[in-house]
Amino acid sequence: MLLKQITQYIESVAPLAFQESYDNAGLIIGNPNDEISGALISLDITEDVLDEAIQKELNLVICHHPIVFSGIKKLNGKNYIERCVAKAIKNDIAIYAAHTNLDSVFGGVNSKICEKLELQHCRILAPTSNFLKKLVTFVPTEQAEQVRLALFEAGAGHIGNYDSCSFNLGGDGTFRGNDQTNPFVGKRNQLHTEKEIRIETIFPKHIQSKVIQALLKAHP
Questions:
Q1: pTM
Q2: pLDDT at 152 over 80
């Protein structure tokens, strides 16, 4: 399995957009296109952890706390951080950290703590602000369902424990294309009226590119 397949899955569960500003979650060391033979899971990166990965011939360590929080200006081995970074690179071991982003999602670290404590009615106390965006598009009625499904499959339309959420309003759209157009319905230089659906849905901003690409691919 490629490293990027593993990181993409982790980030689908705990998006990097959820991490705090001071954090350094994500792929810290490694090439996303490298083949992964096996992974070691740890709370922290230490020299003992890397020695275990080397001994077991594993080339990925997935940790909770990042080994690097800020810039490293020298690699002289004067502290354990520099020694760990150098050892990982020397032995082709990738390091991936899922930290405050994993703390912040349902099913993540804090959720599991709440579960162990048997707490009830749990919710995120400090939700990420400005996290959601709204998409509005107008679609011919006959193609509305295919566009909605494409948006939902791309990750739009999730509200709490519900998915496939949208608001839809019917109406008449008008347009007239010039000589440079190739209209899906209607004819060039002729005013056309089309029964259309206005579709509104929301999505987390970190998947905007994926949602827009799905819309462009599905929309007639």
A1: 0.70
A2: yes
